[in-house]
Design a protein that fits this description.
The protein has no helices and eleven strands. By secondary structure, the chain is mostly beta strands. The N and C termini lie far apart (40 Å).
Length: 121
């Protein structure tokens, strides 16, 4: 019912910038929050940033001051602008959406397919 389609990602040198986006489509009544997670091979998936329906945001300490999460409500799209990238930022980045498909449904969690971000010289 709800699909998340990501775009962006790729290879960037340390200190460079990259942006990724994730658009939600399908049956969407309301969105409580959208977030970005990342997971390096063999490591646990971790939260990177979240933006709530109020507009409030939270960031992991490791990315605070470098990454910015934003959204376009008209397009149901969330963005992650990544600046001053470091090799340790290398991971598969996933978007997540907490949404209701209709007015009589509870909130469900939806995940994107993930996009690879590689920071290397």
């Amino acid at each position: 019912q709800v699909q998340l389609v990501e775009s962006g990602g790729g290879l960037v040198q340390p200190g460079g910038s990259l942006s990724v986006s994730c658009a939600a489509s399908g049956s969407i009544f309301s969105i409580a929050a959208m977030a970005w997670y990342r997971q390096a091979p063999g490591k646990e998936r971790e939260s990177v940033a979240i933006i709530r329906n109020s507009g409030s945001t939270d960031y992991a300490d490791s990315v605070k001051g470098r990454f910015t999460i934003s959204r376009d409500n008209a397009k149901n799209t969330v963005y992650l602008q990544m600046n001053s990238l470091k090799p340790e930022d290398t991971a598969v980045y996933y978007c997540k959406c907490d949404a209701r498909a209709n007015s009589w449904s509870g909130y469900s969690q939806y995940w994107g397919q993930g996009t690879q971000v590689t920071v290397s010289s």
